[in-house]
Design a protein that fits this description.
By secondary structure, the chain is mainly beta. Helices cover 0% and strands 49% of the residues. The chain folds into two domains: 294 residues, Tachylectin-2, Chain A (5 Propeller), CATH 2.115.10.20; 198 residues, Jelly Rolls (Sandwich), CATH 2.60.120.
């Protein structure tokens, strides 16, 4: 059996993976999205399913004023085998004007999927935390810059000493994403260096003592894409894990090129084998950079999430693959309640270009080609907007929605390419249900509608959609997420119900 990279497809950056028996658990950055920090489970390391989130209580963290690509950065999951406790730590990246702009959070649970405790905030103004428990029982949180250690108390709720540099890195720029592991009598310091864009990579050093002199690996970088034309780029920020057979593997982030150096789907999670050299170093994929396809681990078959997505909203809980853009407003949402087997969103004050806007519910795009469908029942009032969206940030998105203008029910297609909104197409539609469809083919997105769910008309096409990615707006430097597709309900003040009967994605 073979697999293709990435194995966790779509906006799943900064992977941290642990093994507990025959089960693997992964966490990823979620930035401004809520619930925070998706937790995924697998038995074969290739196929994954979302089983929870580290933060599901909106009272635990307020992202409502967080700017794009701030919020939750680079989480790490850790299992204390001695006490049976699972920990998740992450950076909370606050807005630029806040001082300090970075703090760390840490939470715990007796189950890997949660629920987790209310986060404890640590005043450490760095990024990319990970946990390391030494053989002498001392517990550390390791953060950038490079690999810097702070000792924690036994409950991992308070810093008791530090900072103290473990390893300063090779001298490449942006030394971050640190992990410390112990193997064969050595402490290995693993760093992401070179920046999180093209040229990203993983470098390693080792020492016999945690705070001893570190020897750089002669095979550095142990992971980097050196061919700019290959489909997988931006490979770095990794962590090692062994499987039940005693084989070693590395999970790391990467990005798939979409008709040029545009990683529309965001940074994703990839898997490659690790080999240990005779002189005690390790290489990822034999130092060849990220593999596109290769032989799968010899582990039990695991189904994971289907490639396609379908939610009929028959449950009273949202599918775990959904994310809100920032904290949701509970008073504006009803699931399988007021309208059975429907998601009811009430229009909430705000516009999509506003960081305070509520009720944007999205799903990660996982492939360059897909079709997304929904059916909407909504009678608009002046200043209300309900429909579908292809969403990257408050500055770059497409909305495809029903509104009211001059006493007419209008279906409009609106684009924001970091230059403000402009209407590219619109048409009057009759009262009653409207079926909406988005067809995405790499950098082209086509928007269609139907009144009967059978015969569709095209409202408009947007191409090229290079603005929907990290690299598409060079003047906007904080772009670290990925493009999402979903639904929304906004207004200039009125609260009007809108009912979605289903939502599906077919790749």
């Amino acid at each position: 059996m073979t697999y293709s990279n990435p194995v966790r497809r779509g906006f799943y950056p900064d992977p941290s993976v642990i093994r507990v028996g025959g089960d693997f658990y992964m966490v990823n950055s979620s930035f401004q999205y809520f619930p925070c920090i998706p937790i995924s489970h697998s038995k074969d390391m290739v196929h994954w399913e979302t089983v929870g989130h580290a933060i599901t209580n909106p009272d635990y963290i307020d992202l409502s004023g967080i700017l794009d690509s701030r919020g939750i950065w680079a989480p790490d999951i850790f299992h204390d085998e001695k006490n049976g406790v699972f920990y998740i730590t992450a950076t909370i990246r606050l807005n630029d004007w806040e001082n300090p702009a970075r703090k760390q959070i840490i939470m715990s649970s007796d189950r890997p999927e949660g629920p987790y405790s209310k986060p404890v905030w640590l005043d450490i103004n760095n990024i990319d935390p990970s946990l390391f428990f030494d053989d002498d029982g001392r517990k550390y949180i390791i953060t950038a810059k490079a690999a810097t250690a702070y000792e924690l108390n036994d409950q991992c709720t308070k810093v008791i000493s530090g900072p103290k540099v473990v390893w300063g890195g090779t001298g490449e720029r942006c030394a971050e994403g640190p992990h410390i592991m112990k193997h064969g009598g050595y402490y290995y310091a693993i760093l992401a260096e070179g920046g999180t864009g093209y040229g990203h990579g993983i470098n390693v050093a080792r020492s016999k003592e945690l705070f001893g002199k570190y020897e750089e690996c002669p095979y550095n970088p142990v992971m980097r894409q050196l061919d700019p034309e290959k489909p997988l780029q931006r490979a770095g920020h990794g962590k090692l894990v062994d499987d039940p057979n005693g084989d070693w593997w590395a999970f790391y982030l990467c990005g798939r090129r979409n008709l040029g150096n545009y990683t529309t789907l965001g940074r994703e999670s990839a898997l490659d084998p690790v080999t240990w050299t005779d002189d005690g170093w390790f290489l990822i994929n034999d130092g060849k950079g990220p593999s596109e396809t290769r032989t799968a681990p010899k582990l039990p078959a695991f189904k994971g999430e289907p490639e396609n997505f379908y939610d009929d909203f028959d449950s009273d809980k949202l599918n775990l693959e959904w994310e809100f853009v920032r904290n949701p407003s509970a008073k504006h949402i009803s699931l399988n309640g007021e309208k059975p087997s429907c998601l009811r969103l009430y229009t909430a004050p705000g516009a999509m270009c506003d960081a305070g806007a509520k009720n944007i519910l999205v799903h990660r795009e996982s492939e360059f080609k897909y079709t997304a469908d929904t059916v909407l029942e909504f009678e608009p009032q002046d200043g209300t907007r309900v429909g579908m969206t292809c969403y990257y940030s408050t500055a770059t998105y497409i909305r495809f929605n029903v509104t009211k203008r001059k006493n007419k029910k209008i279906l409009e297609l609106v684009v924001n390419q970091n230059r403000g909104e402009f209407v590219t197409a619109e048409t009057e539609i009759p009262r009653g249900k409207i079926f909406l469809r988005i067809k995405t083919d790499r950098q082209t997105r086509t928007f269609l509608y139907s009144t009967d769910g059978k015969s569709y008309k095209e409202l408009g096409t947007v191409t090229p959609c290079t603005f929907l990615c990290d690299e598409g707006v060079p003047e906007d430097r904080k772009r670290h997420t990925g493009t999402m597709v979903g639904v929304f309900a906004h207004s200039d003040g009125a609260k009007v119900p809108a009912d979605f009967d289903y939502f599906k994605i077919e790749c």
